[in-house]
Every structure is written in structure tokens, then in C-alpha cells.
Amino acid sequence: MELKDIIKPENLVYDKSQVQTDTIMHYCPGCSHGVVHKVIAELIGELGIQERTVGIAPVGCAVFAYNYIDVDWQEAAHGRAPAVATGVARLNPDKFVFTYQGDGDLASIGSGEIMHACNRGENILVVFINNGIYGMTGGQMAPTTLDGMVTSTTPFGRNADLNGYPMKITELIAQLPGTSYVTRQAVHNAASVRKCKRAIKKGIQNVLAKKGTSFIEVVSTCNSGWKMTPVAANKWMEDNMFPFYPLGDLKDGVKGEPVSKN
Fold it and tell me: What range(s) does the Thiamine pyrophosphate enzyme TPP-binding domain occupy (predicted)?
């Protein structure tokens, strides 16, 4: 049975982007991935760049993004999406190239790739989903896991003396001269979705204008990995994630600026 047989167009309050496929998403209820997928699909359609777009997705919950956003996709090994995107963008300078990565991917095994790609100012957009946990593989501690946060590998909470400190990867990225736009957003309510969409649109436009790397972190929930209901996960994110990972622009300038806006 197809989606059109389940959801009738006359009952929808919005028109689904033609860039978003009819495939029913597999993400857990309350997951932020589906919202961000929808926003990206809408923007690609609105900007008329579907035929020019190449997405790079590595290992993680978003590995099946090609099922939901109808553009050309290239899969990458865990953490290596920025390296693959570098090759695609350099060989196809007329394309809009973006990576879609989680924190367990980008901030851990892929930390070297993302740092050097951003430092070089590769002409790509990076969408970074930060839910503070390894969502796909069992809820293990990630580099972004908060101090004291319980995960499957830190059952008594993350201990900085033992496990190190949570990594504010976006603050590090903002210091690199190759980045032109660095921001942190969320999608937990309607207002935040609108702000995130504006941010991603700006990132896309920067890539199209050859302004170097744009980096957009989306602070997200993993209610399945956090063992919470979607409502409780949103509240926990607001109370705990946002104070440590504050929302807003960190850098808005041009490639070559060595320091962040703030």
C-alpha cells in the first residue's frame, strides 16, 4: 500500500514537497531526523536545485536518507562523509553538495575529516544532528554526551575524569577560517523549525555562491535511546541540552575570517 492510499491529499494542511518521496519514514516517533529531512526536501524544491544536488550520508540513523529525499546520494564509510563530499564537490563544481551526519559519526570517528574539510573551506553544506548519543547502535556514549548523562556505556552517568568532557564541536568549527556560516538550531517546535529552515536555506545559498563551508548543527532528541517519551525528551533537551549547546549563530561572515562572530 502506498502513502497516497493512506493519507488523502484533501486532508493535508500543507503540500508535500515533490523532493520528499512517498516512502513512510522508519524513524522512531518523536525523532528529529524526519523533520530535518522534510525541511531539506522543501528547500531543495523551493530553490529549484533538485537536479544539481548530491547528498552524502554515512553510517548512522540517517543512512537511509536516500529513501526519503529524491536527489542523487553517495554513501560514505563511518565519519568519512566530508572526505567524500570534498571529492564530489571538487569534481562537480556546478553541484550543490551536502553531508548529513550524526554526532557519533561526525564528532567521533569523523572528527579529523570534518575539521580538515572545514579548515580547507570546501564548498559544501554540513548538517550535523546532535542528540548526544549513538542512536542506531544501542545508545552508547558519544563525544557530545553531557556530563552525568546516562547511556548504555555510562550507566552511572558520564564522568569527565574517566570519559573526558562533552565536545562542543560546533564552537571548534566556528574558529576555522574555511567556514563562512556556523550555527546551532533545533526542530522541537514550530518556531524552531522555521528558524532552522532559514538557517539551512542560508547555508545552501552560501554553497551556491561559493562561500566555503557552511555548518549547521541541529540539537535533537533520541527519545528511544534516552528511554523517554517524545514529550519528555523534548523537555529534557530544553532543560539540559540547550544550556550546554545554546542555539543561535556562532559565525556569519565570509571564508577566510579566522574567528567566530561571538
Answer: 67-218
User: What is the Cβ-side half-sphere exposure of residue 148, based on CA atoms within 13 angstroms?
Assistant: 3
Chain center to CA of 80: 15
Domain-by-domain residue ranges, the chain?
26-252
At 30, the pLDDT band (50, 70, 90 cuts) reads: confident
CATH fold for domain 26-252: Rossmann fold (3.40.50)
pLDDT tens for each residue of 51-83? 999 999 988 888 889 999 999 999 999 889 999
* Contact indicator for 72, 102 with CB cutoff of 8 Å: no
* Cβ contacts of 219 within 8 Å, gap of 6 or more: 130, 131, 184, 185, 186, 237, 241, 242, 245, 247
| 214, containing H or E segment | strand 213-219
